[in-house]
Automatic annotation (TrEMBL):
Domain Response regulatory per the UniProt entry, residue ranges: 3-120
GO cellular component annotations of the record: cytoplasm
SMART domains referenced in this protein's UniProt entry, alphabetically: HTH_ARAC, REC
Name of the protein this chain belongs to: Response regulator
Keyword line: Cytoplasm, DNA-binding, Phosphoprotein, Transcription, Transcription regulation, Two-component regulatory system
GO BP term, example: phosphorelay signal transduction system
Keyword Aminoacyl-tRNA synthetase: no
Residues the record lists as 4-aspartylphosphate modifications: D55
Gene3D superfamilies (alphabetical): 3.40.50.2300, Homeodomain-like
GO molecular function: DNA-binding transcription factor activity; sequence-specific DNA binding
UniProt domain HTH araC/xylS-type: residue ranges: 265-363
Protein's cellular compartments: Cytoplasm
Length: 365
């Protein structure tokens, strides 16, 4: 389980957060609470939580100072910010500190759990990458090859989260060509066997968070493992990895088609990963194997607004951040939030905020 700490000067607010979180489902545990930033910093140093949920307005060290300190001392921490005020100063500091979410009080349980789920996914990815990184001399003899390998690995994990077999297959093909092109002197020991083992461990960790058992997805896993040896070629190694990943993806897709109830938190998490792409109600419904009418009604009931408005809101928030904080051009901000047509982006932005993106830039200069 990952460890969570809550920092808020109001006892009732800490209690509400503990009641709203799906701690067991997300494999999280609230290990401690703190009443202010000073106590929070001390306890973070002592207990090393993975996720911090913090208020912004507190006596002593407030949220702004706390986020600055955490960014400097504990950059690996996942932070979720809460505030009773829609304050741009607080929002700006939250963005600078790479906070996962800025939640307005009273906190919406769905938004809280979506933010917690995102933190868990990023922690899992970091753990998997770290598991490879510590043993890099045993896999690649040069840093450039290692970094390229890790990029392919992260891409494949992202496709696995989306049960995208085509994406996994295409990236494995690219990894295949990459490994074939490495000079023999850059191979260290049984590199291919270690790569196969690494991808198997990553898959096992992913399966552990799903609704099915490993044996249901890959009944002949031991045979697959026994076939792996130090004498395998690149083609054989990639083929075995692809086989395992396709088996898991197919099993989970089948389970998703046959289950009776849609988990709307999965829908929210999917939107959070893909809002900057050309997703629509139809494409999301197709991904979850339900009708668009059913998805639309379920989303409205669960979230309080329709899905199109929700996606637009997320895109506009991100576009505003990119323009104000990252100083990107309006064209690039549009492209990075899913808008290929900049004229349409201008129209949506002005309708959403009441002013054009160019006026926003002028106001911050």
């Amino acid at each position: 389980m990952y460890k969570v700490m809550i920092i808020d000067d109001e006892p009732w607010s800490r209690k509400v957060i503990k009641q709203l979180g799906d701690w067991d489902k997300l494999q999280l545990s609230v290990i401690e609470e703190a009443e202010d930033g000073s106590e929070g910093l001390r306890l973070i140093q002592e207990l090393a939580p993975d996720i911090v949920v913090t208020d912004m307005r507190m006596p002593g060290i407030d949220g702004v100072e706390l986020l600055k300190a955490l960014n400097e001392r504990h950059p690996e921490l996942k932070i979720i910010v809460m505030s009773g005020y829609d304050d741009f100063v607080y929002l700006k500091q939250a963005i600078r500190s790479q906070a996962k979410e800025y939640l307005l009080k009273p906190v919406d349980p769905d938004e809280l759990n979506a933010a917690l789920a995102q933190c868990v996914r990023e922690l899992q990815q970091a753990k998997q990458i770290s598991a490879v990184s510590w043993s890099t001399p045993l896999i690649f003899a040069d840093t450039a090859s290692l970094n390229q390998y890790l990029e392919y690995r992260q891409l494949i994990y992202g496709y696995l989260l989306d049960l995208n077999a085509d994406g996994v297959g295409d990236t494995l093909d690219t990894l295949h060509h990459f490994l074939e092109g490495i000079d023999a002197e850059h191979f260290v020991g049984s590199m291919l066997n270690k790569i196969g083992h690494d991808f198997t461990l990553m898959l096992e960790e992913f399966v552990a968070t799903s609704e099915l058992e490993w044996s249901q997805m890959i009944p002949d896993l031991e045979l697959t493992r026994s076939e792996s040896s130090d004498q395998n070629s690149v083609s054989e190694t990639i083929l075995q990895i692809g086989y395992m990943y396709n088996q898991v993806i197919a099993a989970l897709q089948g389970a998703r088609k046959n289950r009776n109830k849609l988990d709307m938190r999965e829908v929210l998490a999917y939107i959070s990963r893909h809002y900057n792409e050309a997703i629509t109600l139809e494409s999301i419904a197709s991904y979850f194997y339900i009708s668009k009418e059913h998805l639309s009604r379920a989303f409205k009931t669960f979230n309080g607004d329709n899905m199109t408005d929700f996606i637009t809101h997320k895109r506009m928030e991100k576009a505003k951040e990119l323009i104000v904080e990252r100083k990107l051009s309006i064209k690039h901000a549009a492209e990075m939030t899913g808008y290929a047509d900049i004229a349409y982006f201008y129209k949506v932005f002005k309708k959403h905020y009441g002013f054009a993106p160019g006026e926003l830039r002028k106001g911050t200069e």
